[in-house]
């Protein structure tokens, strides 16, 4: 989870695609309008789920995104499957 947050913060679409389950990953990932990510709080981690709050800033000011993400092991590595935004 932390590495994917860092990839969003750096705009590293290649890493995000590589760590996204093939069944649910988008055909392409455009991060050009990506906000400036300013912090990550892990609220809960249990089994294959991680609840977090990611903080960001846009031209409109600060904001946050709350999500409960689901991951699975694939080829010995954790990959993002999907999530529910709160």
From TrEMBL:
<dbReference type="InterPro" id="IPR032710">
    <property type="entry name" value="NTF2-like_dom_sf"/>
</dbReference>
<dbReference type="InterPro" id="IPR048469">
    <property type="entry name" value="YchJ-like_M"/>
</dbReference>
<protein>
    <recommendedName>
        <fullName>YchJ-like middle NTF2-like domain-containing protein</fullName>
    </recommendedName>
</protein>
<dbReference type="Pfam" id="PF17775">
    <property type="entry name" value="YchJ_M-like"/>
</dbReference>
<feature type="domain" description="YchJ-like middle NTF2-like">
    <location>
        <begin position="1"/>
        <end position="83"/>
    </location>
</feature>
């Amino acid at each position: 989870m932390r590495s994917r947050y860092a990839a969003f913060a750096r705009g590293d679409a290649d890493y995000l695609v590589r760590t996204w389950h093939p069944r649910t990953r988008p055909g392409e990932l455009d991060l050009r309008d990506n906000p400036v990510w300013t912090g990550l709080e892990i609220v809960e981690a249990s089994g294959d789920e991680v609840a977090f709050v990611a903080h960001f800033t846009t031209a409109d000011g600060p904001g946050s995104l709350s999500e409960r993400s689901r991951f699975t092991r694939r080829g010995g590595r954790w990959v993002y499957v999907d999530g529910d935004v709160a």
